[in-house]
Specification:
It comes from Triticum aestivum. With 326 residues, the protein is mainly beta. The protein folds into 2 domains: 151 residues, Trefoil (Trefoil (Acidic Fibroblast Growth Factor, subunit A)); 136 residues, Ubiquitin-like (UB roll) (Roll). It contains 4 helices and 17 strands. The strands form 4 sheets. Strands 5-4-1-12-9-8 form a 6-stranded antiparallel beta sheet, with no helix packed on it. A 5-stranded mixed beta sheet has the order 14-13-17-15-16. A hairpin with a 6-residue loop joins strand 2 and strand 3. The longest helix has 12 residues.
């Protein structure tokens, strides 16, 4: 696994399709896509040295784990059939929420071609593969399969670190409809903080499931998710258990990273540009700097964010892939 160095970033390009392994915009699917200069095409390397010797066919580590540089979630194989027209079993993104998660464990195997061409073998024995060799209309699918195919060959492209520090996050997303829900629904005290709302079902904002609830809220309000966040100390330390008193939470609507940063800054009484956001995909997931808009999926769920203050050693230690580098 010489091409995969812990903490570095890589792209994986299908040797046949010539397209890149992408974390899809829904934050769950994995696809093949042409764009190269994209955080969705960048994967952070996490080398896991654990293992109890009882794994199916592979024994002890080290194992290769890959998590998306866009959303932080890990590349995983599932036991569910692949989508129609694809071979084998489905591949998805998932959180690293337990100490031992076999679904996210891989090994890089030499292909016998060039040094930078590998096969990714899952701990269960199947291999990551592209789809659509003979069906161009079906060429964006990714799955795992145990039948040998040239679609299992991947070109590893290392991505250098960005020397200029944190990249600019996208600007505010347009609002297609005026949000009239504030007129017709109750809001808690936190409504005053840049659009942040209390969490439905909790004390400040009881969930309303009655047939007489205002319909305008559903029509004009974007979907939301729970944001659970903590402010890291200057050295980067933060309590890993989310039930610690330092972790707080609020309800956030929409996908805008720009708006989310503003909401977090308001909660900790800082200016927006003076913070960096890192998403943690599960209790054991590594931190991933959040510099893209939130996925268009996962609504109703929880997103864990660790906040770093500019000018601190913890902030300065964050690393970003230079996806624009040639």
């Amino acid at each position: 696994m010489d091409h995969f160095q812990d903490g570095h970033h890589v792209r994986l390009r299908s040797r046949v399709q010539r397209t890149y392994l992408h974390a899809a915009a829904d934050g769950e699917s994995v696809t093949l896509s042409q764009p190269r200069a994209s955080m969705n095409a960048a994967w952070a390397v996490h080398i896991y040295d654990g293992g109890d010797g009882e794994g199916e066919g592979d024994g002890d580590g080290p194992y290769l784990l890959l998590h998306s540089a866009a959303y932080g979630r890990y590349l995983s194989a599932t036991a569910r059939p692949a989508r129609r027209g694809h071979h084998g079993l489905r591949v998805e993104l998932r959180d690293y929420d337990q100490p031992e998660v076999e679904a996210i464990r891989w090994r890089a195997i030499g292909s016998g071609f060039a040094d930078d061409v590998v096969m990714l073998r899952h701990v269960g024995g199947s291999y990551l593969r592209a789809n659509g060799k003979y069906l161009p209309w079906n060429s964006t699918g990714v799955s795992v399969d145990d039948k040998a195919s040239s679609m299992m060959y991947w070109i590893v492209e290392p991505i250098p670190l960005r020397e200029a520090g944190i990249p600019a996050i996208p600007g505010p997303l347009p609002t297609p409809l005026i949000d009239l829900s504030a007129i017709f629904t109750r809001r808690g005290a936190e409504r005053e903080i840049r659009g942040v709302e209390p969490i439905p079902g909790e004390a400040a904002m009881p969930a309303d499931h009655s047939p007489n609830r205002p319909i305008f809220s559903a029509i004009f309000s974007s979907r939301g998710r729970r944001i659970r966040f903590v402010l890291a100390l200057e050295d980067g330390y933060y309590p890993e258990e989310v039930d610690a008193d330092d972790w707080r939470q609020f309800w956030f609507r929409g996908r805008s990273a720009f708006s989310l940063r503003g909401n977090l800054a308001a909660h900790i009484d800082e200016d927006d540009p003076n913070i960096a956001m890192c998403v943690r995909a599960g209790r054991h997931g590594r931190l991933t700097p959040l510099v893209v808009n939130l996925p268009d999926g996962g609504y109703g769920g929880t997103l864990e964010i660790v906040v770093f203050l500019a000018g601190t050693p913890g902030y300065d230690a964050l690393r970003y892939p230079d996806v624009d580098a040639q």
